[in-house]
Amino acid sequence: MNSPLPLIDNLEHLPNPYTQYPAMVMRLKAGVPQLKDEAYQRDLQLALCFIYSYNGSQATFNSYRREVERLLLWSWFVMDTPTTALRRDQIEEFIHFCITPPESWIGTKNVARFKNKMGERVPNDDWRPFVAHVSKLEFRNGQVPLSQQYSLSQAAIRATFSILSSFYGFLMQEEAVQQNPVALIRQKSKFVKKEVTRRQVRRISNLQWDYVVETAELMAEEDPATHERTLFIMNALLGMYLRISELVADERSAPIMGDFIKDTDGHWWFKVLSKGNKERLVSVSDEMLQSLTRYRRFRQLPDLPTIAEQTALIPKNRGQGAMTSSRQVRNIVQHCFDQAYYRMCDDGMKTDADDLRVATVHWLRHTGISEDVKVRPKEHVREDAGHSSMATTDRYIDTEYRERHASGRKKTLRPH
Questions:
Q1: How many CA atoms lie within 13 Å of 44's alpha carbon, on the beta-carbon side?
Q2: Beta strand spans in 19-153 (E)
Q3: Boundaries of every domain in the chain
Q4: What does the pLDDT look like over 30-59, one tens digit per residue?
Q5: How far is CA 368 from CA 231, 381, 385, in A?
Q6: Which CATH class is domain 206-400?
């Protein structure tokens, strides 16, 4: 089975489907014979309008595009029918297809969906609907992704159900379908496993963090032009539980120094535009304020921000303006993790250092929350972290697990 071509371009190259759809479908007709049929044209237009409604967030747009585009391609090229005609049992077939797609539909690296050619956006023949990956540690050890080893995580399966259910809800509102076939699947448990009460939170240890931040401080002393920014980024990610998207500029916002705000009591807060386009205020600790002051002095700014100061929070390496690349932040953090790992190994603590080989940027957020929930009211931690429910914050509380394990350690293998 040959792999189909992509249908939906990146957000910055996607015209408004409500007003410019005829031109969009004309460009795709040559490579997608189905689009000569009006039923398929209407199918694509509905999908584009649904996905375009999430243009306020690049990450959300990408997630919804991925799932809906896969459904379109499978429905058109495998089932030979528009998505508006799919039944519940066919949606189940699609889920099975996503779990074990044919090898020709699986790529081994992320490539652009469309390319520029003679001033036009044309589909990229190397693109595939599914991509196989290896872990960060496996990649560093020289392993490469293989299409035969593709697997779909439980989180990815849950996302597929959620997004497709929203899509069919939209189709019902548009009167394109009479019912939601995803919602009619009663036995989702055969696809999605029930998890244990609490998943292990991925974090680095306090010893590892001591080495990481000390390493950042040493690098900042040796090369302040490069690593004063590194030190501030590391402290901000852990000390304010920031997500990587909350440090870089995107189409929704560009973090500035003026996002640090002092209230009438003299307390400092950091204003964040978080998931779901919701603003939240994060309390700024005294040590985080000291870190900010150090960073600002390096940048030859006054010790503390002024009201509505427009200075970029994290500047680009070169040129003016804010950093826009989340990959660049990941590389900065990874370099710091690597150097801390080597220092721990040199000090004879290789076993203690091993987690740093697989740690990601997001582990710093987990670490900060895990430590604070030990000493602060969990309601306060929840507000600072931007958790939608207390259940999410409760995942970081280890007390119950510690007590359960302590009582279980004395179990005997020879009962009296």
A1: 25
A2: 106-107, 114-117, 120-123, 130-131
A3: 11-190, 206-400
A4: 778 888 899 999 999 999 999 999 887 788
A5: 16, 10, 10
A6: mainly alpha
